[in-house]
Specification:
Layout: H1 2-22, H2 30-60
């Protein structure tokens, strides 16, 4: 459950950073754009991995 919450936080951060750059609350830069992309990608990968593990465990009857 903690990992799913972490992935949601990462995905939200990955959406918030570009929004803040477009609305000029943060100065747009290549590094910040790459960081937003990396955070979003990490959240998506983590959430997908945890979801697949949970489905696999339930399908095998271990939980």
């Amino acid at each position: 459950m903690k990992l799913i919450v972490l992935s949601l936080v990462l995905l939200t951060g990955g959406m918030a950073l570009p929004f803040l750059m477009v609305s000029r609350f943060l100065e747009p830069s290549f590094v910040l754009s790459f960081l937003a992309y990396a955070i979003s990608l990490a959240g998506l990968a983590l959430g997908s991995t945890v979801a697949v593990q949970q489905v696999s465990l339930r399908w095998r009857g271990r939980e």
